[in-house]
Amino acid sequence: MASAKPRLIVEQDDSRGSMPRWEQLSRRDEYSLSRIGKKQILKRRFGLISTLGLSTTLMLTWEGVLVYFGFGLANGGSAGLVTSFILSWAGFLAIMVPLAELASMAPTSSGQYHWVFMLAPKRSRVLLSYLTGWLSVAVWQSIVTMGGILCATLIQGLLVLNYPNSYTPQGWHGTFLIWATVILSFVVNSTFGRWLPKIEGFILYLHVIGFFALIIPLLYLGERVSPVEVFTTWNNDGGWSSTGLAFFVGIITNIGPFIGADGAVHMAEETQNAAVVIPWNIVITVVFNGLLGFGMLLVTLLRAGDVNSALETQFNYPFIQIFFDATQSTAGTTIMVAIILVLAYCATFGQFAGASRQLWAFARDHGPPMSNKLLLVDSRSFLPMNAIWTTCIISLILGIINIGSEKALESILSFTISSWEAAAAIPLGLLLWSRNTGKIEQRRRYSDISVETNDDIPLVWGPWRVPEPFGTLVNITGLIWIIISFFFSFWPSSVEVTAETMNFSIVLTGFWVIFGVGYYFTIGKRYYKGPTIETRESRNNLINRSG
């Protein structure tokens, strides 16, 4: 498919000053891809608002604060929740800012594994790149499943609320509800894929409106809790040796809502002016979602009423009990929870899109099994339909886990966090090494660039960059936070571990890494040589003419 030494040339056009704005941006996008050896294949349908809608809403930050509320109260208490949110917010911003710099250098849907190949030493870059791509695929596929589990358990919580004497949640009920969520996301990403940017832009407004639709009733109707109590109460219900250790065990509560902040990265080849829009999108997403999440956390804690009653609720999630205690109305609580449910469904649309594009990009470079099928793009819609179908099938299979474990959401959340952190740590570490060894050149103006092999691709800062020494300081801070959150992502919720309370993420993560490394050395390394350099002919071969 890809020639060993194809030649790509981006020609400087001295007349670009008189070009229309859209044509200048189009040429800039083509230049950015050509400089790293890629040809434009997917349609650039996304702009700043639509990408912001996709990345902001798929994270479910303020909604996630409510969902994982109970776990943080048990390990850390209300004071721990507030403190860990601030730390997680700052830590994730420190992670995402260097990733935004990399997205500006190489705005490609491949994301982290492509950047690792660019930055790593020649002897190790293929293996490190492959491992990063392997982890990234797992992250995004599990995010889709996690979104389905959330929707399913919210519906089950509403059924218990409305039919307390006649409905008992069953694991297989949840599996069917997960499947319904996945199938809906598949339809939106396939049948309505061309209109996904408009859909995501509309969902962004729902995301903000829904926030105020919940926060206002809570402020007016919720039972007031003293601010002193909120900011000074520390809990250690897990039985850990110290409250400080309990606090670190509970930080997963506020790490989960920020996972997926790199969603826009995997839509880079469908975004206009990607080298600028994607980095700004990443930063705005973390800042904006952090503000909404922190606001929701404070209001919920200050209007939580009887916290012990909320923790012992039969409605799956403590926040449903808090809503019910505040409104004293089944109908009112149902409406409030339904708002979160609708947004959770909408989030899976963006999660599904990010997962399918990540899988498609990795297949384009011959990473996963069956790459020759997964890399094909439909000639009519210019969507990676095989990758979309595969994402659907994988999520349906993973949904079966819910039958045997009511803690599936927690285990998959921990697995997602550990895998995401590992996939982010590798490019951040290599970026820190590269920026301090002078490997990255200053930004170039548009010029003739020929790319014959991966060795010829220059490391050049993009138009979005943090000036030094702040860039290095932020980079170091991000790596420190990754180490902390990665370590505690494997911990169970209490000292006394049973089959029910066990955190199986270490098993899942270990299996996936070992399986990936084994596949690479037995089969993968024969096909994966790093990001491929594409010619016009190889670009045409990616289009599924039979579609």
UniProtKB/TrEMBL annotation:
Sorted UniProt keywords: Membrane, Transmembrane, Transmembrane helix, Transport
Record's protein name: Amino acid permease/ SLC12A domain-containing protein
Residue spans crossing the bilayer: 46-69, 81-106, 127-159, 171-190, 202-222, 242-265, 277-302, 322-347, 382-405, 411-433, 473-491, 503-521
GO MF, one annotated term: transmembrane transporter activity
Record membrane topology: Multi-pass membrane protein
InterPro entries the UniProt entry points to: AA/rel_permease1
Cellular compartment(s): Membrane
Main location group: membrane
Pfam family, one: AA_permease_2
Signal peptide: none
One annotated Gene Ontology cellular component of this protein: membrane
